[in-house]
Fold:
Amino acid sequence: MRFKAIPVLKLTIILSLLPLLSGCVLTKVVTVPMRIGGAVISVVPGIGNDVDAVIDTAADTIDLVPI
Structure:
């Protein structure tokens, strides 16, 4: 039977990246797009800055989640 190195290599890569998926990284995956969207919305005259502030507050709250 022939030994397949590819699945072992994939498993090794996944297991080596697993410690990087801590709560901080997981919350950043959610909050960075929120912050970018808030920055884009902030250019809307009149309500843009208020909406950006609300989105930024929500992103700050998500960052505090203890995962």
User: Anything to note?
Assistant: The chain has three helices and no strands. The longest helix spans residues 23-41. The helical segments are 5-17, 23-41, 48-63. Residues 29-67 form one domain.
